[in-house]
Amino acid sequence: MDYKNIEQLLERYWRGETSLEEENQLRDFFTSGEVPAALLLYKELFVYQKEQQIEGLGADFDARMLSKVESPIVKAKHLSLVSRFKPLFRAAAVVTVFLMLGNVAQRSLFHNDALDYNYNNYRDTYDDPNVAYKKVSSALLILSDEISKSNNQNSADSIYKAATDSVMNE
Questions:
Q1: Model confidence over 8-45: pLDDT tens digits?
Q2: Is the pTM of this model over 0.70?
Q3: Residue 95 above 90 pLDDT?
Q4: Is residue 126 within 8 Å of 132, Cβ to Cβ?
Q5: How far is residue 38 from each of residues 3, 7, 12, 35, measured CA to CA in Å?
Q6: Which of 46, 63, 69, 131 could form a disulfide linkage to 30, CB 3.0–4.6 angstroms apart?
Q7: CB burial class (10 A; 0-12, 13-18, 19+) of residue 106?
Q8: 2: which DSSP letter?
Q9: Which residues contact 148 (CB under 8 A, 6 or more apart)?
Q10: Each residue of 3-31: b (16+ CB within 10 Å) or e?
Q11: Segments in 32-128 forming alpha helices (H)
Q12: How far apart are CA 118 and CA 39, in angstroms?
């Protein structure tokens, strides 16, 4: 065979431009006995390709590949409404427990003066009614002042709103 033709086929083979017939010619050339020294380094590649064509992939190749590619079939489970919300219920229970423990800890640590709301056990702390009257009247006076401040603030807000509305309408 013409060595120049083989070199041209090799050039086209490396660029990926050869047809199947031309590749078979290259395999036949390199598997035949005589190969020039300049082309000996390509011989092992084409001999290996020829041997692999003869050997093939094996009978169980398709089954092995499909077992690796296909994922196992997972059956869908039917979820009830309760099972869907179960994590939410658990989280709510945990939050409730922590809030209750925090409330108990806060009351036990910071509120040592417990209030007794049992009216049967109520005892008057003031011996003199005038002292009690002064205490109640001062508390009511403070309350009255705060309410009037709030009303003044509300009236100031309404005056400001009326003024801005009249400016906007003009």
A1: 888 998 899 989 898 888 888 888 878 877 888 888 88
A2: no
A3: yes
A4: yes
A5: 10, 10, 17, 8
A6: 46
A7: exposed
A8: -
A9: none
A10: eeebeebbeebeeeebeeeeeebbbebbe
A11: 40-55, 61-69, 81-110
A12: 111
Question: Would the CA dihedral through 28, 31, 35, 38 be positive or negative?
Answer: positive
Encoded tokens for 50:
């020829």
Other Cβ atoms closer than 10 A to 47:
14
Secondary structure (DSSP) of 101-153: HHHHHHHHHH--S-----GGG---S-SSHHHHHHHHHHHHHHHHHHHHHHHHH
Give the pLDDT confidence of 112-127 residue by residue, as tens digits.
565 666 777 766 676 7
Token digits of residue 23: 């590749």
In this structure, what token pair is assigned to residue 16?
Answer: 């990926």
In whole angstroms, what separates CA 64 from the centre of its chain? 35
For 29, residues 6+ apart whose C-beta sits below 8 A from its C-beta are: 1, 6, 35, 46
